[in-house]
Inverse folding.
C-alpha cells in the first residue's frame, strides 16, 4: 500500500474508532424506550440541530452530488438548500402542531386524521423508503472504503455497520445525537476547506470555466424541471420526516432554535461537492461518476484526500445513525403498539432493538443491488412527500367532510403507485408531479364513492380538541410517553 493510501487509511480508521467509542460511551444513558427513541424529550437545541444536520447531510448531499455534478453540472449543488428550506417551513407550519398533538411519527398524525389502517399502511411505506435512504449511506461509505482500502465493496458495507450499527443499536437516538456532533464538525469544516484547495488545484475559477463544456455551469446541465422537482420532493420530504427531532427537544423553543441552526448549517453544504464533481469532470473525464471524488482528492494531496473522504464517511454515518434510530420508532409506535397496546416498556425496548437488527440486514441487501445515490434518494423522498401532502390535504379539506378515511387510505396508495410508475415508465421526469396527481385524484374519487358511509376524517380542530384533555400533563413542553 502506498504512502497516500496509508495516510488516508490512518485518518479514516482513527475517525471510525473515535465515533464508535463516543457512541458506545453515551449509550449508557439509555434506560428506557423513551430514552432510546426520543431521548425522553430532554435535548437542547444544539443536539437537536446535530441530529437534523446528520439526517440531511448524508452521502446524497456529498459524494452523491459529486457523482451527479460529474455528468450534470454545478447546479446540483443546490441539493442541500432544499433541505434547509424544508426545515424552515417546518418551523412555520407543523412543528407546534406535532408537539401539541403528541404525534411521534407522520404515520401517527395521519392515523389521528384518517384512522389506524392508514397509520399502519403509511408506516410501512415510510419504513420502505427509509430503508432506501439508509442503503444509499452504505453505498457512499462502502464506495470510499473500497477505493481507499482496496477491499471488496461488500466488505465495506459490513464495516459501516460495525461502527454506526453498533452504537445505534446500543444507544438509539442518544448515541446518534452525540456522534453527529462530531460528524457535523468534520463534514462542514471539510466542505469549507475544499473550495480554495480545489480551485487552486485547477488554476482558479477562470481556468475551470475555460476548460469545461458550458452545460456544466448552466442550469441546462440538469434541467430546470429536475431542479424544481428536487425543491418539491426534498423540501416536503424534510417536513414529514422531522417528527422524531421535534420530540427530542426539551421545549418548543429548543426545537425551533435547533431547526434554524440546522437550516443555516446545511443550506449550501452540497455546493463544494458539486464543485469537486465539476473539477473531476474537467481533469479526469474517464473515471466512473462514483469514483470522481476519490480520484480527484487523491490526486490533489493525501491529507486533503483523507479529510474529504473522512468527511464523506462522516456524512454516511451521520445519516445512517438517525435513520437507524428512526426505524424502531415507526415499528414500536405505529405497528407494535397498535397490535399490543398494553405492552410494557421493556417489551417495547426489546422490539425496538430487534427491529433495528432486521432493518440493518435489509439495508445491506438494498445497498448491494442499487448504487445510484441521488436517483435512489429522490425516489425515496418522493414517498415522504406523499405523507406530507396527505396531511396538508387533510388539514385543508377534512373540516368540510370532503375526505373520508377510506378515501385518504386509497389516495395515499395511489400516490405511492404514482412514484413507481413515474420511476420506471417516465424516468426522465421528476416523480413528484405524477405522484401529486395520483394522490389528489385517488383521494377525491374514493372519498366520493364512500361518502355514504359517513366515515369522515377528523378535522384539524377535532384533533386539537381531542389532544387538549391530555394537558397540562402532556403539554407541548411535556415529555411524550412511549409506553402506556
Amino acid at each position: 500500500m502506498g504512502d497516500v493510501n496509508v495516510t488516508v487509511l490512518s485518518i479514516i480508521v482513527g475517525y471510525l474508532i473515535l465515533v464508535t467509542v463516543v457512541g458506545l460511551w453515551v449509550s449508557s444513558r439509555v434506560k428506557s424506550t423513551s430514552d432510546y427513541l426520543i431521548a425522553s424529550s430532554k435535548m437542547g437545541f444544539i443536539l437537536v440541530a446535530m441530529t437534523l444536520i446528520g439526517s440531511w447531510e448524508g452521502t446524497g448531499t456529498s459524494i452523491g452530488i459529486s457523482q451527479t455534478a460529474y455528468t450534470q453540472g454545478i447546479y446540483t449543488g443546490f441539493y442541500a438548500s432544499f433541505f434547509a428550506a424544508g426545515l424552515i417551513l417546518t418551523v412555520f407550519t407543523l412543528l407546534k402542531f406535532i408537539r401539541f398533538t403528541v404525534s411521534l411519527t407522520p404515520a401517527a398524525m395521519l392515523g389521528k386524521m384518517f384512522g389506524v389502517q392508514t397509520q399502519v399502511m403509511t408506516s410501512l411505506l415510510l419504513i420502505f423508503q427509509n430503508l432506501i435512504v439508509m442503503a444509499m449511506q452504505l453505498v457512499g461509505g462502502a464506495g470510499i472504503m473500497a477505493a481507499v482500502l482496496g477491499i471488496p465493496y461488500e466488505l465495506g458495507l459490513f464495516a459501516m455497520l460495525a461502527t454506526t450499527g453498533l452504537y445505534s443499536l446500543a444507544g438509539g437516538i442518544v448515541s446518534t445525537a452525540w456522534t453527529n456532533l462530531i460528524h457535523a464538525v468534520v463534514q462542514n469544516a471539510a466542505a469549507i476547506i475544499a473550495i480554495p484547495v480545489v480551485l487552486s488545484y485547477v488554476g482558479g475559477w477562470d481556468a475551470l470555466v475555460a476548460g469545461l463544456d458550458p452545460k456544466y455551469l448552466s442550469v441546462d446541465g440538469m434541467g430546470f424541471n429536475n431542479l424544481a422537482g428536487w425543491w418539491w420532493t426534498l423540501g416536503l420530504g424534510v417536513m414529514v420526516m422531522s417528527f422524531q427531532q421535534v420530540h427530542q427537544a426539551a421545549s418548543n423553543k429548543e426545537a425551533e432554535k435547533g431547526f434554524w441552526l440546522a437550516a443555516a448549517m446545511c443550506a449550501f453544504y452540497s455546493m463544494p461537492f458539486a464543485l469537486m464533481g465539476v473539477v473531476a469532470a474537467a481533469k479526469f473525464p474517464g473515471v466512473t461518476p462514483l469514483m470522481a471524488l476519490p480520484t480527484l482528492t487523491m490526486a490533489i494531496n493525501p491529507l486533503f484526500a483523507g479529510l474529504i473522504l473522512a468527511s464523506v464517511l462522516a456524512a454516511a454515518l451521520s445519516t445512517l445513525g438517525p435513520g437507524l434510530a428512526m426505524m424502531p420508532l415507526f415499528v414500536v409506535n405505529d405497528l407494535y403498539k397498535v397490535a399490543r397496546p398494553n405492552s410494557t416498556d421493556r417489551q417495547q425496548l426489546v422490539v425496538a432493538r430487534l427491529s433495528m437488527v432486521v432493518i440493518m440486514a435489509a439495508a445491506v441487501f438494498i445497498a448491494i443491488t442499487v448504487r445510484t445515490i441521488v436517483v435512489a434518494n429522490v425516489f425515496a423522498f418522493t414517498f415522504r412527500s406523499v405523507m406530507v401532502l396527505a396531511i396538508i390535504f387533510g388539514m385543508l379539506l377534512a373540516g368540510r367532510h370532503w375526505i373520508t378515511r377510506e378515501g385518504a387510505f386509497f389516495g395515499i396508495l395511489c400516490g405511492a403507485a404514482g412514484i413507481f410508475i413515474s420511476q420506471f415508465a417516465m424516468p426522465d421526469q421528476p416523480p413528484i408531479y405524477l405522484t401529486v396527481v395520483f394522490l389528489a385524484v385517488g383521494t377525491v374519487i374514493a372519498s366520493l364513492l364512500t361518502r355514504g358511509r359517513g366515515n369522515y376524517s377528523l378535522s384539524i380542530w377535532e384533533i386539537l380538541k381531542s389532544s387538549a384533555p391530555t394537558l397540562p400533563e402532556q403539554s407541548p413542553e411535556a415529555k411524550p410517553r412511549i409506553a402506556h
